[in-house]
Amino acid sequence: MSLDHLNSVPGVTAQPEAATSQFVFNHTMLRVKNIERSLDFYTRVLGFSLVEKRDFAEAQFSLYFLALVDKSTIPTDDKARTTWMKSMPGVLELTHNHGTENDADFAYHDGNSDPRGFGHICVSVPDIHAACERFETLGVDFQKRLTDGRMKSIAFIKDPDGYWVEIIQPDL
Amino acid sequence: MSLDHLNSVPGVTAQPEAATSQFVFNHTMLRVKNIERSLDFYTRVLGFSLVEKRDFAEAQFSLYFLALVDKSTIPTDDKARTTWMKSMPGVLELTHNHGTENDADFAYHDGNSDPRGFGHICVSVPDIHAACERFETLGVDFQKRLTDGRMKSIAFIKDPDGYWVEIIQPDL
């Protein structure tokens, strides 16, 4: 669909107000049961860096902010790093309510069965076949392999809580 | 917390594998009941641009991809725009299952009551007081105003489906 058509889809404001010109879609927040498993998945399997952690001891939860960036671009100064992290798009926030990891019956809802809502996050990779072979080698759970279903150019893997992570390649 | 401490949090792989170096956290997908209302909210209130739409007539759903970018940077060529859109961080994908907007009883789940999981998305703004005053003027629903609760530097507004959108200012 052409850009002109996209700009005339019902509901669309084709020229946003100047007031929104510096707005940034900064992050998406997911609750996770076992933070150690989630940090392992997002940093080792997907390459995110942990760029900020905030602990709320009294309310018994912690927040973890992750970004998929070149490590050399992360500010070492704590205050500068916070401002930097809040200014960029593509941050993932994980919320860990302390102790959920010790409850065998505890599980979060991935949004893809009733009641539905949130669907998935997506990581774009330069070579989807190489990426999926690596995920297989690492023992990652798949929701949909490249060979499953009709759409052969996308895959879905699952994070430790079962949240779906779509894998795409930009030029496919 | 210092970067050294962040790199030694249990579960964290401090130096990601080279295989992930070009990975990009591309998008987050939310299902929406009434696409016209959602497009109005995300383009007019928050300044997103609709950069791609895909229709699946047989399966009766459509996908809408939105990005918070300078309009002048959006490629006009359709193929180039698709590749560009899949290469950047901070894209929002909205899924519309056709006809849900006509069912008065239909509603999606925002993830913040049981069963919980997904929590919110977040938009960073240069001046949070100006942004929140504008949201009030526009009649946007608030989950938490700046003056509510303990944290006076963040707000939460609600999109037409009730999904929470956190509003932050990087240097606050």
Keywords:
homodimer; 172 residues; alpha/beta; 2,3-Dihydroxybiphenyl 1,2-Dioxygenase, domain 1; 2 domains; four-stranded mixed beta sheet; 8 strands; globular; lactoylglutathione lyase activity (chains A, B); lyase (chains A, B); EC 4.4.1.5 (chains A, B); Lactoylglutathione lyase (chains A, B)
What does this structure look like?
Chains A, B: Belongs to the glyoxalase I family. Chains A, B: Pathway: Secondary metabolite metabolism; methylglyoxal degradation; (R)-lactate from methylglyoxal: step 1/2. Chains A, B: The active site is at 166 (proton donor/acceptor). Chains A, B: Keywords: Lyase, Metal-binding, Nickel, Zinc. The structure is a homodimer of 172-residue chains. Chain A has 172 residues and is α/β, with parallel strands linked by helices. The first copy, chain A, has two domains: 23-102, 2,3-Dihydroxybiphenyl 1,2-Dioxygenase, domain 1, CATH 3.10.180.10; 118-172, 2,3-Dihydroxybiphenyl 1,2-Dioxygenase, domain 1, CATH 3.10.180. Helix content of chain A is 21%, strand content 29%. The first copy, chain A, contains four helices and eight strands, in the order αβαββαββαβββ. The first copy, chain A, has helices at 3-7, 35-45, 78-87, 128-137, and strands at 24-32, 49-56, 61-67, 91-97, 118-124, 142-144, 155-158, 164-168. In chain A, the strands form two sheets. Chain A has a four-stranded mixed sheet with strand order 1-4-3-2, with helices on both faces. In chain A, strand 7 (155-158) and strand 8 (164-168) form a beta hairpin. The longest helix of chain A has 11 residues, at 35-45. At the A-B interface, helix 1, strand 1, helix 2, strand 2 and helix 3 of A face helix 1, strand 1, helix 2, strand 2 and helix 3 of B. Strand 1 (24-32) of chain A pairs antiparallel with strand 5 (118-124) of chain B, so a sheet runs across the interface.
